[in-house]
Amino acid sequence: MDRKLRAVVFDMGNVLMTFDGAYFASRFTDTPEDAALLNGALFAAPIWALLDSGTVSHETARRVAAAHLPKRLHPNLNECFRRWPELSEPLQDVNDLAIRLKGEGYKIYVLSNANVNIMEQLGHAPAAPHLDGVVVSGMERIMKPDPAIFRLLCERYELAPESCLFVDDNADNCEGARIAGMHAHHFTGDAAELEATIRALG
Questions:
Q1: Per-residue pLDDT averaged across 143-171, rounded?
Q2: What is the chain's Cα-based Rg?
Q3: pLDDT of 99-142, one tens digit each?
């Protein structure tokens, strides 16, 4: 394969799969006020990042979130904590692009700030069966935008950083990839724009 770009590395949340804590919380509560309380105690709280970093367990995260909620919302929290991945939906255009790229001979990977149960969400992505590898912050205990997690992916899968394009909806994470020597594309929802970037590098 005579091309400069050999691999495309996708973030998961809001690149391959939707992630919207406020929406998830609204599906497990009856009023906007309760949804805001649940989102604020869980998805928008510091404990969520700690869960993704692999430094706290799921049970600890649940208990800490519960401490910030009235007891009447504890059943809602428990149900949301267990079932929110069911509400995450594929971004079909990006999944289609990833599958097409794999068919053209590119390697495709996921690098995500996510907890150790990532497959409860990523497993619903049409591109998931086609992936050549996955690196997850909760398992590695390194989080984007730390360049170390991008270097880890390249070392693990024997990739030259300059042959990889990293795709993320967070600009800071893209900068971390660039520091590690990779190309990066800040994804804003336009799969055609992403494909144009890939073709320009290819």
A1: 98
A2: 18
A3: 999 999 999 999 999 999 999 999 999 999 999 999 999 999 99
Q: Which residues contact 67 (CB under 8 A, 6 or more apart)?
A: none
Please tell me the distance from the alpha carbon of residue 146 to that of residue 55, in angstroms, as a whole number: 16
Q: Return the exposure string of 106-124: e unless at least 16 CB atoms fall within 10 Å of the residue's CB, then b.
A: bbbbbbbbbbeebebbbee
89, 61 in Cβ contact below 8 A? no
- The DSSP annotation for 66-80 comes to HHTS-GGGHHHHHHH
Q: In this structure, what are the phi and psi dihedrals at residue 81, rounded to the nearest 5 degrees?
A: -60, -35
Which residues, other chains included, contact 84 with Cβ-Cβ below 8 Å and sequence gap of 6+? 24, 28
pTM over 0.85: yes
